[in-house]
Amino acid sequence: MKKEKIDISFECHYPFSNFELDEIDFVRLLSIFLDNATEACHEVTHPNVEVLFLTSNNDISIRISNSVKQKYEKFEDMQKPGVSTKKNHSGYGLSIVEDIKKKYNNLFINYGFSDGKFVSNIIVEKRKK
């Protein structure tokens, strides 16, 4: 099996604290997005994954972007359980993301395509007290 080289950049300029998500949910979110990003890179000539953590007013923004071979026309379908663009995959990743998102009123996640990349934005707002 051939190992593929993926250019990865990671930026996190400031530590963040008082994170307002359960750590397990946070790790699950990151794992799903990073797994999807690296797998999508296996299909492109110049694989690239970028991860950026930003903090502002105690809110945390995470942006994960990766090269993609094509833009998926019916992306909404990929958020349903059992739907996948990958061969031999269960297709539960993004539906799990949607389930986690429903648990928190301060968690906002959106996805899209921009300049040949798939971009996921995760925002965790500080809860109002």
TrEMBL record:
UniProt keywords, alphabetically: Kinase, Transferase
Any one Pfam family match given in the protein's UniProt record, by short name: HATPase_c_5
PANTHER family reported in the protein's UniProt record: TWO-COMPONENT SENSOR HISTIDINE KINASE
Gene3D superfamilies: Histidine kinase-like ATPase, C-terminal domain
Gene Ontology molecular function terms on file: identical protein binding; kinase activity
The Sensor histidine kinase NatK-like C-terminal domain, residue ranges: 23-124
Protein name as catalogued: Sensor histidine kinase
